[in-house]
From TrEMBL:
<comment type="pathway">
    <text>Cofactor biosynthesis; nicotinate biosynthesis; nicotinate from nicotinamide: step 1/1.</text>
</comment>
<dbReference type="Pfam" id="PF00857">
    <property type="entry name" value="Isochorismatase"/>
</dbReference>
<keyword id="KW-0378">Hydrolase</keyword>
<dbReference type="InterPro" id="IPR000868">
    <property type="entry name" value="Isochorismatase-like_dom"/>
</dbReference>
<keyword id="KW-0479">Metal-binding</keyword>
<dbReference type="InterPro" id="IPR052347">
    <property type="entry name" value="Isochorismatase_Nicotinamidase"/>
</dbReference>
<comment type="similarity">
    <text>Belongs to the isochorismatase family.</text>
</comment>
<feature type="domain" description="Isochorismatase-like">
    <location>
        <begin position="10"/>
        <end position="206"/>
    </location>
</feature>
<protein>
    <recommendedName>
        <fullName>Nicotinamidase</fullName>
        <ecNumber>3.5.1.19</ecNumber>
    </recommendedName>
</protein>
<dbReference type="GO" id="GO:0008936">
    <property type="term" value="F:nicotinamidase activity"/>
</dbReference>
<keyword id="KW-0662">Pyridine nucleotide biosynthesis</keyword>
<dbReference type="InterPro" id="IPR036380">
    <property type="entry name" value="Isochorismatase-like_sf"/>
</dbReference>
<dbReference type="GO" id="GO:0019363">
    <property type="term" value="P:pyridine nucleotide biosynthetic process"/>
</dbReference>
<dbReference type="GO" id="GO:0046872">
    <property type="term" value="F:metal ion binding"/>
</dbReference>
Length: 214
């Protein structure tokens, strides 16, 4: 993929929230390390969109809302298999806030996802029922975006699903590997890279995108 950033490119910064940081409710190992990388990348993009995982306390993805279950097990739900998580990113709580060190003042849009109590949404585009849209594809199209560069947390869940759905919606898509960190449950990271490659999502580094920048 051509790694020169231009006006048709958007940086999609996924779920850089306190609950995904070390010590958080659903900590992603080394999740905080993406913050300086994303801050550097964001200066190279004229167009940046952020997402926040944004759940009601009654959310279907929380193990605490299913008697007799534990976090990180799976449960069959009407829309498919769901991993059950610790309570995380509850709307309006400090854990759901963006990391204080994230410095992207020119970000134009924040998409909040996973707000329906009965459906999860790893993807910034399409909820886990694979039907309900967030509106992000339409927004990006209206702004003439052609390529979506994904960064943030977690590589194997919200980043991968968002990149796959960007591709499915007709955008060129890339995952910036060193601007992401993974949860890696039972091989989920290897599977994510495999699925991304098969779908034609490019794998790039921040160094490739920033070369030639000051
Ligand atoms: C995420 C699990 C549950 C993510 C969100 O941001 O990757 N993972 N909710
Ligand atoms: Zn979540």
């Amino acid at each position: 993929m051509n790694t020169t950033i231009g006006p048709d490119d958007c940086l999609l910064v996924i779920d850089v929230q306190n609950d995904f940081m070390p010590g958080g409710a659903l900590a992603v190992p080394h999740g905080d390390e993406v913050v300086p990388v994303i801050n550097r990348l964001a200066r190279a993009f004229g167009h940046v969109v952020l997402t926040q995982d944004w759940h009601p306390v009654s959310h279907v993805s929380f193990a605490a809302n299913h008697a007799g279950t534990q976090p990180f097990q799976t449960l069959a739900l009407p829309y498919g298999e769901q991993v059950l998580w610790p309570v995380h990113c509850v709307q309006g709580t400090p854990g759901a806030a963006l990391h204080a060190g994230l410095h992207v003042p020119h970000a134009r849009l924040v998409i909040r996802k996973g707000h329906h109590a009965d459906v999860d949404s790893y993807s910034a585009f399409l909820e886990a029922d694979r039907t309900t849209r967030t509106g992000l594809a339409g927004y990006l199209r209206e702004h003439g975006v052609r390529r979506v560069f994904c960064a943030g947390l977690a590589t194997d869940y919200c980043v991968a699903w968002s990149a796959l759905d960007a591709r499915a919606a007709g955008f060129a898509a890339a995952v910036i590997e060193d601007a992401c960190r993974a949860i890696d449950l039972e091989g989920s990271l290897a599977k994510a890279w495999q699925d991304l490659g098969a779908a034609g999502v490019a794998r790039v580094t921040s160094a490739e995108l920033l070369k030639g920048q000051g």
